[in-house]
Amino acid sequence: YKKDKQNLIKKGAKSKLDELEHTRNVLENLKNLISGAIGENLVVKEIKKLGDDYALINDFNLSFSDPIYYKKQDDWIYSAQIDHLLISRAGLFIIETKNWSKSSVNTNNLRSPIKQIERSNFALYIHISDNITLNEHHWGEQTIPIRNLIVMINNKPTAKFKYVTVKLLSELNDYIKYFESILTQSQLNKVIRQLTN
Known about the structure:
Elements lengths: L4 H44 L6 E16 L4 E14 L2 E8 L3 H4 L7 H19 L14 E7 L12 E4 L3 H6 L7 H12 L1
């Protein structure tokens, strides 16, 4: 007993330590989940201030019975989930919300929201190309612009990125209102109908 005292104490406490470690991991995951939900709720409240000229779909999901190949990431896409899809006369805004701390923004080991939103953009582009046609312009079929936007609740990186804009929550509505209307009201209604069915 005297020789193995430390080992016996470790063995006796191991199950309690494992249980505490499991509880810590669960709480950490819940904290991230709750933080994300709070961030998404804040974005919804901010977008509602824009008025009735915008349609917002939260937790927009796409699925493909035949997966689509996304060459840029050498990946087959079976489904895509978008935090918020904002439909406006200026086009579509894919909005991903991140409620990250400053240290998380500067950490290299988190999954890139840039890659996530680019993947979603490709999936949405394919879906729209296959399902929505706007033939009202006398020059021919119009495209529907899709803009990628990551909304950071408190902290954002200082870097600029290709194909994706990163804004703070406080900058969100001014950014959206910056773009000119290119769709008619009937085209907007058609896009809303197609994406909400």
